[in-house]
């Protein structure tokens, strides 16, 4: 094996062995699958949903079940949704029989290199599907896992960034629900990064998926195990343990930020001359890397949101009289800003009654401004 940097912070983990902790979550997913209970997994971006889904599906496959991973990340149209379903369902072990192709050809649809197409005239190039045709394909494909269930083997289907369906078509969840609701021997996991849209899909009475899936959350990573995991993968160096402890503490259990800092620390510790400043230098390098994205995040924020995140970075309550006064903002506008930030679910989370910034590096960036 090449001795490259072992800390990959840009892609979901595909080897379950690389996962820190998440045993309770994997257990919960596996129990729900055995009971054919659907699960909805919600957390902010970069908290490890996709990595967890892969680990879950790996375990299920190893136990002899069929699995499929469907990625709806940033789908824009109903035709995109159909394409993604094809990509996901083709992973089922029935695909070598070309069952999916045969089903689609009944609908006049074929799988091209750029996605699904319909044949309008013989020997003419196909055109891409319109929304109604795509909905027809979606209905047909969604039925497949249920039909496979006839042989009694469990099929586990993970649908990632499920809320993005709503971008393609606000009513698509109804189509999904109507097809999959009576299926046997199929277990679904719906994962999503947008807290507000996931709530909209699963917690609003008028939505088809209301109350239809067991909620599962992803907490921050546990400090002790994270420390051991990181330390054991760093180069041998006199500064290793102290520096690992520093960055793990700093990242406060944020999975992707932990890996990002560990990656930069690894690079520093490869130099035998690295000193006590190694952890600090890794932090600086990570912040340099993120600077552009934080600038655009900051630029996109309103006045009250900026005041709120600055207060949170300093450990203050954004809705306190003092903070509102310092920023020349009414407490009611601060309150509304906090509500918007919370609904979005990407920047802040509630820890008991206290609000905190999710991203410790963004907090540090704000403090250094
Ligand atoms: N349990 C974990 N152990 C170690 N690293 C993790 C874990 N979960 C996530 N990560 C890190 O976080 C990054 C983002 O994970 P990912 O699964 O893509 O999150 P999400 O799907 O929630 O956006 C990965 O590249 C990986 O570095
Ligand atoms: Mg993901």
Overview of the molecule:
By secondary structure, the protein is an alpha/beta fold. It has 16 helices and 10 strands. It folds into 3 domains: 22-217, P-loop containing nucleotide triphosphate hydrolases (Rossmann fold), CATH 3.40.50; 221-300; 301-369, Arc Repressor Mutant, subunit A, CATH 1.10.10.10. Helix content is 50%, strand content 12%. The strands form 3 sheets. Strands 2-6-7-1-8 form a 5-stranded parallel β-sheet, with helices on both faces. Strands 3-4-5 form a 3-stranded antiparallel β-sheet. It has a two-stranded antiparallel sheet with strand order 9-10. Helix 1 (23-34) crosses helix 2, helix 10 (240-251) packs antiparallel against helix 11 and helix 13 (303-313) packs across helix 16 (360-368). The longest helix has 22 residues, at 278-299. The mean pLDDT is 94. Magnesium ion binds at residues 12, 49-50, 160.
CATH class of the largest domain: Alpha Beta
What overall form do the CA principal axes indicate? globular
Order of helices and strands: HEHEHHEEEHEHHEHEHHHHHHHEEH
Return residue spans where pLDDT drops below 50 for at least 5 consecutive residues.
Answer: none
Q: Report strand order across the widest sheet.
A: 2-6-7-1-8
Shape-level CATH architecture of the largest domain? 3-Layer(aba) Sandwich
In the CATH hierarchy, what is the superfamily of the largest domain? P-loop containing nucleotide triphosphate hydrolases
What's the N-to-C terminus distance? 42 Å
Give the oligomeric state of the chains in this entry, treating copies of one chain as homo and distinct chains as hetero: single chain
Give the rounded overall mean pLDDT: 94
Largest sheet: 5 strands, parallel
């Amino acid at each position: 094996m090449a001795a490259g940097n072992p800390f990959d912070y840009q892609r979901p983990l595909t080897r379950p062995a690389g996962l820190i902790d998440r045993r309770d979550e994997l257990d919960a997913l596996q129990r729900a699958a055995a009971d054919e209970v659907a699960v909805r997994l919600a957390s902010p971006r970069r908290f490890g949903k996709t990595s967890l889904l892969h680990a879950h599906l790996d375990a299920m496959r190893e136990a002899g079940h069929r699995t499929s991973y469907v990625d709806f990340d940033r789908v824009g149209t109903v035709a995109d949704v159909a394409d993604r379903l094809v990509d996901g369902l083709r992973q089922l072990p029935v695909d070598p029989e070309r069952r999916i192709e045969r089903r689609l050809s009944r609908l006049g649809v074929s799988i091209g290199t750029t996605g699904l197409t319909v044949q309008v005239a013989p020997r003419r190039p196909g055109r891409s599907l319109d929304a109604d045709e795509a909905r027809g394909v979606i209905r047909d494909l969604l039925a497949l896992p249920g039909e496979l269930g006839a042989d009694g083997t469990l099929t586990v289907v993970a649908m990632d960034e499920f809320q993005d369906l709503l971008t393609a078509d606000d009513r698509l969840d109804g189509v999904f629900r109507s097809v999959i609701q009576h299926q046997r021997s199929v277990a679904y996991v719906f994962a999503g990064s947008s807290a507000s849209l996931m709530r909209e899909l699963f917690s609003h009475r008028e939505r088809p998926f209301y109350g239809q899936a067991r909620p599962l959350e992803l907490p921050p990573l546990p400090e002790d195990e994270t420390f051991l995991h990181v330390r054991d993968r760093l180069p041998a160096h006199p500064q290793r343990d102290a520096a690992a402890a520093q960055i793990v503490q700093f990242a406060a259990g944020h999975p992707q930020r932990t890996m990002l800092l560990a990656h930069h620390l690894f690079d520093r510790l490869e130099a035998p001359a690295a000193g006590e400043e190694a952890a600090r230098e890794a932090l600086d390098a990570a912040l340099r890397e993120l600077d552009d994205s934080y600038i655009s995040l900051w630029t996109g924020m309103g006045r009250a949101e900026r005041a709120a995140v600055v207060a949170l970075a300093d450990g203050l309550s954004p809705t306190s009289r003092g903070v509102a006064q310092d920023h020349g903002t009414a407490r009611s506008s601060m309150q509304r800003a906090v509500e918007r930030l919370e609904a979005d679910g990407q920047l802040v989370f509630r820890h008991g009654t206290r609000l905190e910034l999710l991203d410790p590096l963004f907090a540090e960036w704000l403090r250094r401004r």
